[in-house]
Amino acid sequence: MAHVLLADDNRELAENLAEILELGGHGVRTAETVAAFAEAFDPGGLDLVVSDMLLPDGTGIDVVRIASAAAPPVPVVLWTAYAGDRRVECAVAAGAVGVLRKPCDLERLLAFVERLSDPAAAPVAVCVGSAAWRSAVASAIVARTPFRPVAVGDDGRLLAPVPAQRVRAVIAPPGAAPDAPWVAGTHRIEVPEGPGAEGGVHAALADLARAIPASAPC
Amino acid sequence: MQAQAQDLRPTPARVTQPLPALGRTGVPRYEAVPPDVRTTAPPRPIAYPPPRVSLLEDIKEYIGFGRRDAEALRAFLPVARPHFRRIASHFYNLILEHPSAHAAITGGTQQVERLKKTLVDWMESGLAGPHDETYFARRSRIGRVHVDIGLPQRFMFTAMNVIRLDFRDLVRQHVPDPEVARTTSDALDRLFDMELAIMLGAYQQDSEERLRKRERLAVVGQVAASIGHELRNPLGVIHSSTFLLRRYAEDPKAARHVDKIEHQVERCTRIIEGLLELTRERPVTRSEVDLAALADEVAAHLRESGILGDDVAMTVRYEGKGTPRVHADPSMLSQVLSNLVENAVVAGGARSVVVHVEPVEEGVAISVLDDGKGFPPEVLARAFEPLVSSRPHGTGLGLALVAAIAERHGGHAEAANRPEGGARVTVVLPAAGDGG
């Protein structure tokens, strides 16, 4: 059962998504502006945030910043018509864990909601490369492994309410693994940027899943 | 975000003052407006395209070509006429020494003889006059021809100078009276300046037309991109509603229609993606691409999405040593291969698709050959035009994108039916270092 806060000014779309998530047994609240989002944002009670990119009084970047700066931070998935935009790059750099495209990534969005709120799924930290890289890696993790992708901020902070000692692996472009205490003791996986990132991480994570059962106690 | 309806009139958004009048030299002249008039004078309307002002009067005024010149030229005509053929021959002999002029004149001696006669007529009518709008129109057409055959603009100056010098000699040798000689020389100078100005006007007009055409295309591209983006939100509502409908609809007939709606939404999305990709004009970022590996990756994607069935074979053939490599943008190349293989299988019904790579004179030719039913003739004729498709569920953008990508790399694309049946689409990419 996930607690989701949805930020989108397209009221009908927000209603539909709320209805879909509720049918799946999740709890959803919606906000149509950044201000409304900030007011409804309750970090302790939320599993994740789903946000559009363009809002009447701001952008998805503002939403990501609010969610990432909170204690504990709440993961954000962007669900937007404008995937591939420069602002999307900024939003991912600010800490969004994935970018999904309206309209047809609905199934993937649901998969993200399920996975990001699953306490049994072992977290795998995904460091920032480009927006496309992080999004591809996070999508691959959700689609093909039992793990839960967690965004890592610039400062090495985990941007999800996950205890650091549970992190099983760190995925980063070569040379980009953060210098943070929780990184020690995790499996490092390097996936270069460019076409084939998704395939590369799939192969690497397949090995990881074999080596570390996802449900092993920490 | 719901956008406002956009004003699509192509007004030049950055113009902050009305179009200025063309001055004597054809350069915009900004009239100094006294302070008290500025606030009350009504702004001149902005016209698109900008109004064409009759150049002839402006040119004559600036150059100072008047009645005295016309009379002097008419008086000189009988003296000059016997020398026209000689001057024309001299002119074309010199012109043909230039390689680009030589390349532009493709019709051999027959064409050159015709051109010499035209030049003689030109000299005749230039000296005889009248120098009116009909004369201007005829000279402009000649200028237009020079533009159309691709003669570089700067040639106009050297060419005119050859004529100018020959006529100066004529005056020196055949006009004894110094006063008349000076008047005639002045008149000839003004005539040739005027001719030059008119010819260059044709080049200017051509530049402006091409710029306007590019602007129009850019506007169309922006509009297309805008429409593409804006459609995603309503499509999002439709798509998510069908998702819910599927849960609620118990009647299997309803479920069938829900399926149809969902497929059409996916199709709309693919059209939008294709359109946006076409209009995006992403810069080409080249790197060394291993074509065999890229083809494998494309095949894997297509098999996973069910487009490439298990019963369809896809192979890579290379005419050369080692692995086929090409210097290109990997994601664009991936898109090209993906579109072509998908076409071969879905539109052509192919059971076997071959990616054939061979070095050619211009660089590398990558062909996708299939054993399907080939292009229908009416589709083949317009193969690379956007929104032309023989597939019932096709977007009609696949080949247009392939052509656009080839062009962005400085290469080109070809489509044909194979003599043994099936289709062949080839993308020729220049070798590294050509065309950016």
Q: Give the topology string of chain A: H per helix, E per strand.
A: EHEHEEEHEHEHEHEEEH
State the shape of chain B.
elongated
Taking Cα atoms only, what radius of gyration of chain A do you get, to the nearest Å? Answer: 16 Å
Distance between the termini of chain B: 38 Å
Tell me the quaternary state.
Answer: heterodimer
Distance between the termini of chain A: 23 Å
Largest sheet of chain B: 5 strands, mixed
Strand content of chain B: 5-15%
How helical, in percent, are the residues of chain B?
A: 55-70%
Poorly predicted runs of chain A are none
Q: Unreliable segments of chain B (pLDDT under 50, ≥5 consecutive)?
A: 1-5, 10-31
H and E string of chain B:
EEHHHHHHHHHHEHEEHEEHHEE
Query: Level of helix content of chain A?
Result: 25-40%
Largest interface: A-B, 24 and 25 residues
Number of separate strands of chain B: 9
Measured on Cα atoms, how large is the radius of gyration of chain B? 32 Å
Report the sheet-strand fraction of chain A.
Answer: 15-25%
Shape of chain A: globular
| SS content category of chain A | alpha/beta
Largest sheet of chain A: 5 strands, parallel
